[in-house]
Structures are given as structure tokens and as C-alpha cells.
Recover the amino acids of this structure.
């Protein structure tokens, strides 16, 4: 069965078009556009996301994991408010050797890879074929995101709160978006060899605090539209 994960109830409600009242980590069967899916909120952050995904992988027979949510944009000209994106690479800039004044940790300098997928060691990033995974999961490849396409994203434990740090992170990693759960979910699915897809809509500029350069209601509305489009595949 396909598992849909969001960090918060508000994101799940917007994605599925139905008020979500279930507690964090509760797996709920749900009919969405004529298809039986399993859905759960993880709570915010990599720890919560990893814990809930681990429970699902251990207890459920999953055909794939679809992560839905909002994200910050490092460049609103390229990734504007309300736009929808399929992520095809996640970076965790906080894993590794971290010294005072550094923007990101050096994963290689620590000397310990997080894990191994096949013959590939995972350090601070993982990538996947989003379009192939969409097809494997019976979803419409890039439908609803044709104007925007694929993007690289950073997963952080602390939201970037100022423009200086945002610029430094972007210069080092060249990522388009910032989120708080994606790497944990992508990495866990890679280890378990379960197809993974991550869909994000832009709610804010990275480094800006509300209300400047923020439109959370618009991003949530766009998330519902983009999710519905993914499930419009006539071959599912």
C-alpha cells in the first residue's frame, strides 16, 4: 500500500482535502480519489520523520512512500511562492564534523558514512529518480509540476532565520529548497528499497520570518492541487 506522510495535520488536511484529526504517528487507511492509501503525520523534524517511517517499514507492506509538505525557497525568482516541485535529491548539511563559524558540517571529515545502499555509501546526501518512482507507485509523472520540474533540497533541524545564513547555505550546496524531514524519509526508503517521492510547495523565502516573503495559505492550497494532480494518472 502507498503511504502518504506529512509533518503536520495542516499539511495533510490541505493535501487530501479533508480535515485531519489523528494524532502524530497514527497510520490511517484513507480513500483518496478512488484509491486506498495509508496516511500519517510524522511531526516536525528529522527525528520524528525517521521514527514514524521506521515504524511503517517494520509493520506495513508498503508499495511506496509519498512525502508531501511545504518548504522554503532559497531564490524566489527561480522557486516562487506557491510553486510545486518534485525533489530528486536531499542533503543533510548538519551531519559530520562541525566547527565554530562553519555553515555546514563536513561529512567526509568525520570518517563515518551514515550507511550503504548497494555499493554506494551515504554520507550527507541521497538522490533518486522521481519520475521512475512515480510510475512504480502508480502516480502521474510530474503531472501538476510541469512548469517547475525537479529540485534539490536541504533538510535542516533548525529553520534558517536570517539572510546571511541562507546565502551561505545556498552558495555551498546550490539547493533550491529547505525543509525539515525529507532527508530522513528519503534515506530510510533507500535503505529499505522502497520507492520514495517528495512533493513540496513553496511557502516562504529561506531566511525570512513572517509575514515578509511568506504565503503559507497559498502554499497549502497549491499542495492540495499538486497532490490531486499526482493521483490523476489514468493507469493507476
Amino acid at each position: 500500500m502507498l503511504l502518504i506522510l506529512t509533518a503536520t495535520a495542516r499539511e495533510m488536511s490541505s493535501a487530501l482535502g479533508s480535515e485531519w484529526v489523528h494524532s502524530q504517528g497514527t497510520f490511517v487507511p484513507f480513500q483518496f480519489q478512488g484509491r486506498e492509501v495509508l496516511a500519517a503525520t510524522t511531526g516536525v523534524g528529522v527525528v520524528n520523520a525517521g521514527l514514524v517511517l521506521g515504524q511503517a517499514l517494520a509493520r506495513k507492506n508498503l508499495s511506496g512512500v509519498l512525502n508531501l509538505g511545504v518548504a522554503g525557497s532559497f531564490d524566489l525568482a527561480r522557486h516562487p511562492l506557491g510553486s510545486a516541485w518534485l525533489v530528486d535529491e536531499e542533503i543533510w548539511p548538519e551531519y559530520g564534523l562541525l566547527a565554530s563559524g562553519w555553515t555546514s558540517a563536513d561529512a567526509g571529515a568525520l570518517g563515518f558514512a551514515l550507511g550503504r545502499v548497494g555499493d554506494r555509501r551515504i554520507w550527507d546526501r541521497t538522490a533518486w529518480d522521481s519520475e521512475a518512482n512515480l510510475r512504480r507507485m502508480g502516480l502521474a509523472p510530474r503531472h501538476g509540476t510541469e512548469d517547475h520540474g525537479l529540485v534539490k533540497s536541504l533538510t535542516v533541524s533548525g529553520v534558517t532565520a536570517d539572510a546571511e545564513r541562507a546565502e551561505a547555505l545556498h552558495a555551498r550546496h546550490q539547493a533550491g529548497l529547505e525543509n525539515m524531514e525529507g532527508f530522513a524519509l528519503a534515506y530510510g526508503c533507500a535503505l529499505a528499497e522502497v520507492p520514495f517521492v517528495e512533493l513540496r510547495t513553496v511557502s516562504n523565502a529561506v531566511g525570512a520570518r513572517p509575514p515578509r516573503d511568506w504565503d503559507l495559505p497559498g502554499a497549502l492550497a497549491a499542495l492540495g492541487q499538486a497532490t490531486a494532480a499526482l493521483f490523476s494518472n489514468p493507469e493507476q
